[in-house]
Specification:
- This protein is of the alpha+beta class.
- The protein has one domain (about 5-210): 3-Layer(aba) Sandwich (Aminopeptidase), CATH 3.40.630.30.
- Helices cover about 35% and strands about 30% of the residues.
- It contains seven helices and nine strands; from the N terminus they run ββααββαβαβαββαβα.
- It has helices at about 25-35, 55-70, 100-105, 125-140, 155-160, 190, 205-210; strands at about 10, 15-20, 80-85, 90-100, 105-115, 145-150, 165-175, 175-185, 200.
- The protein has a nine-stranded mixed sheet, with helices on both faces.
- A hairpin with a 2-residue loop joins strand 7 and strand 8.
- Helix 1 (about 25-35) packs antiparallel against helix 2 and helix 4 crosses helix 5.
- It is globular and about 40 Å long.
């Protein structure tokens, strides 16, 4: 049995669980990607794991390759933790946590997607709160950032409702076309003012060692 600490991390809330993206869980989730339920309009920014390939087999393959690349390139200078979102024991999306020179800046970013049949039910907000709890409580982050295109009302609404503050704009591309993104920032102090008491962390100590944070 392979023991890889980043895959053993779990974050549990009353609504969802974030579970390390093992191959078994990815296998269960791939049907959602194949059926096109991982896409969104307006599209998010271009990401290494493209979810917008028209051929469903190519879409699944590129998505899996993106996750595997992220899992295999964990270093103290850059890491991307991939989690499968579980609702009532069923995989319904992904939530990633990204650290770029985290040991220096203490900053994390997030990326996520959710199956179309579970949107607008509060699950996206719960996913973000769960991964923020891991970042601040579990890993000791000092701030979290997020970005979304100006016309992405859903993602920007989640950031605003959780307490992020607008932090300027930046250019990015989606499907190869440029667009302006709203940048968001949430400090540790701001997060502490709304820290939840009903989120549990599992396997974090071992993961911190693999990230060079212990």
């Amino acid at each position: 049995m392979v023991n890889y600490a980043p895959l053993d991390v779990r974050v549990s809330t009353p609504m969802i669980e974030l579970a390390g993206a093992t191959d078994d869980l990815l296998g269960e989730l791939q049907r959602v990607v194949w059926e096109g339920k991982a896409t969104a309009e307006p599209a998010p920014y271009d990401d290494p794991m493209s979810l917008y390939e028209s051929d469903p087999d190519v879409r699944v393959r590129r998505w899996l390759q993106g996750v595997w690349r992220g899992r295999g390139s964990v270093t103290p200078d850059f890491w991307r933790l991939h989690f499968v979102v579980m609702v009532a024991g069923r995989p319904v999306g992904m939530q990633d946590l990204i650290g770029d020179r985290f040991g220096t800046y203490g900053t994390v970013a997030s990326f996520s997607w959710l199956s179309t049949d579970l949107r607008r039910q509060g699950v996206g907000r719960e996913m973000r709160q769960a991964v923020l709890h891991l970042a601040f409580e579990g890993l000791g982050a000092t701030e979290a950032t997020s970005e979304a295109f100006l016309d992405n009302a859903g993602s920007n609404g989640v950031s605003r409702s959780i307490g992020y503050r607008e932090n300027g704009v930046a250019w990015a591309s989606r499907r190869g076309e440029p667009g302006l993104m709203q940048r968001w920032r949430l400090t540790r102090e701001e997060w502490m003012g709304q820290r939840r008491q009903d989120i549990d962390l599992h396997g974090v100590a071992e993961c911190k060692e693999s990230l060079g944070l212990s």
